[in-house]
Amino acid sequence: MSETPEAQRKRMTMRSWRRGTKEMDLILGPFAEARLPGMAEGVLTLFDALLAENDQDLYPWMTGAVEPPERFAALVSEIAAFARARHQPGG
Fold this sequence. Notes:
Elements (H helix, E strand, L loop, with lengths): L4 H13 L4 H14 L5 H11 L3 H9 L9 H14 L5
């Protein structure tokens, strides 16, 4: 049986908040809550694949310490910008 879009978004939001490292919880959780509801199908698939990556790889990608794989580059850039904007004064 295939997952409904609603169930997929709920699962991905939960997985974004329960990563294993608090840093990635705080980066991915708010992004998922804000962006998953309106995310296009192709980006949802890519975000789901990103969630399967290890936090030890994701965190350096998000901070810019290491270049992410090309397939994730645009999404990682979007997530990192979202996280930075949330932590700006007045953000």
